[in-house]
């Protein structure tokens, strides 16, 4: 069944400074987003059958008119709201309750470290880790489901298992693990922070073994499927969702299709790959900077898996 979601980038600004930020919030000095444009987008799509409204940024919880925006969404009949956030403002339980009263039914919370040392270094926000953890706890206390999103970097890849175990301990409902998309601030961090294909597989696959073996809900986002096989079925971009997004004045009528068509590509190793029809490809900047040899090795691994299965 197709999930239909309306999505809005509500602010460029953020209270963290992640060096791999896909929207480049650490570089933003002023906000390019006009509040009136957000309201107009809500009104224009109010009768189009969207099941949920997703708010993201930047950091949407620092928007000075967030409560007003949520009230407007309620007036125009959006059945539920999801907020993508670093969770720091959720340390305030009263703030969480106000969001719940205004229809927030899911928090998608960024968590990139299992401890303050790694998380606060990645976000360049001393004290942020503890606030995020308290925010997750408060969301769960309020009865609001939490999906954690973590971006795999060279700084945290050795902690992936511990991050996921922390999520389980906190009662997180869904763990989404994302490939680093090297645009925005992330373009400058690619060489230092983006793991190689071999590094990704070495650290990610054992974690997926553990999580799926224990029955936890886990998904993958932005990875070429050869990199995550045999867990390619966990890819979130599987054609089962339709997202219409407003981002800095531009409307993207099918976000997943846009990402596949405009931000990712296929190279020589992809020719004839059995996973290609379902795969979004490799981020343009990654292929430009590191080439395709890594993916030749990943493709060879696929061939080995197929041969083993045939025996």
Explain what this protein looks like in three dimensions.
- The chain is globular.
- The chain is built from twelve helices and eleven strands.
- The chain has a single domain (about 5-310), classed as Aldolase class I (TIM Barrel, Alpha-Beta Barrel).
- The chain has a nine-stranded mixed sheet with strand order 7-6-5-4-3-2-1-8-9.
- The two termini are about 35 Å apart.
- Helices cover about 40% and strands about 15% of the residues.
- It has helices at about 35-45, 65-75, 95-100, 115-125, 130-140, 160-170, 185-195, 195-215, 225-230, 255-265, 285-290, 295-310; strands at about 5-10, 50-55, 80-85, 105-110, 145-150, 175-180, 220, 240-245, 250, 265, 280-285.
- With about 300 residues, the protein is of the alpha/beta class.
Based on CA inertia axes, which overall geometry fits?
globular
What is the strand tally? Answer: 11
- Give the number of domains: 1
Number of helices: 12
For the termini, the CA-CA separation is: 36 Å
CATH superfamily: Aldolase class I
Instruction: Provide the gyration radius in Å.
Output: 19 Å
Which blocks of ≥5 consecutive residues have pLDDT under 50? 305-311
Percentage beta strand? 15-25%
H/E series, N to C?
EHEHEHEHHEHEHHEHEEHEEHH
Q: Overall mean pLDDT score?
A: 94
CATH topology group: TIM Barrel
SS-derived structural category: alpha/beta
What CATH first level would be assigned?
Answer: Alpha Beta
Helix content: 40-55%
């Amino acid at each position: 069944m197709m999930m239909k979601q309306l999505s809005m980038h509500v602010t460029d600004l953020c209270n963290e400074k992640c060096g791999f930020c896909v929207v480049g919030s650490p570089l933003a000095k002023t906000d390019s987003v006009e509040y009136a444009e957000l309201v107009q987008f809500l009104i224009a799509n109010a009768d189009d059958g969207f099941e949920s409204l997703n708010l993201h940024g930047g950091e949407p919880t620092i928007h000075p008119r967030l409560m007003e925006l949520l009230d407007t969404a309620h007036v125009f009949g959006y059945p539920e709201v999801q907020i993508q956030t670093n969770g720091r403002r959720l340390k305030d339980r009263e703030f969480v309750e106000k969001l719940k009263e205004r229809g927030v039914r899911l928090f998608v919370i960024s968590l990139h470290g299992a401890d303050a040392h790694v998380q606060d270094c990645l976000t360049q926000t001393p004290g942020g880790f503890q606030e995020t953890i308290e925010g997750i706890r408060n969301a769960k206390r309020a009865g609001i489901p939490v999906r954690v999103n973590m971006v795999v970097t060279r700084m945290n890849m050795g902690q992936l298992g511990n991050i996921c175990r922390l999520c389980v301990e906190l009662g997180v409902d869904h763990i989404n693990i994302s490939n680093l998309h090297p645009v925005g601030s992330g373009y400058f961090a690619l060489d230092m922070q983006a793991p190689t294909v071999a590094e990704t597989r070495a650290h990610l696959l054992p974690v997926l073994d553990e999580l799926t073996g224990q029955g936890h809900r886990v998904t993958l986002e932005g990875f070429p499927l050869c990199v995550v096989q045999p867990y390619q079925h966990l890819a979130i971009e599987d054609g089962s969702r339709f997202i219409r997004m407003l981002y800095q004045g531009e409307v993207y009528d099918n976000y997943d299709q846009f990402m596949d068509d405009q931000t990712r590509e296929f190279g020589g190793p992809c020719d004839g790959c059995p996973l290609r029809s379902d795969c979004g490809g490799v981020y343009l900047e990654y292929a430009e900077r590191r080439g395709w040899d890594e993916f030749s090795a990943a493709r060879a691994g696929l061939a080995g898996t197929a041969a083993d299965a045939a025996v």
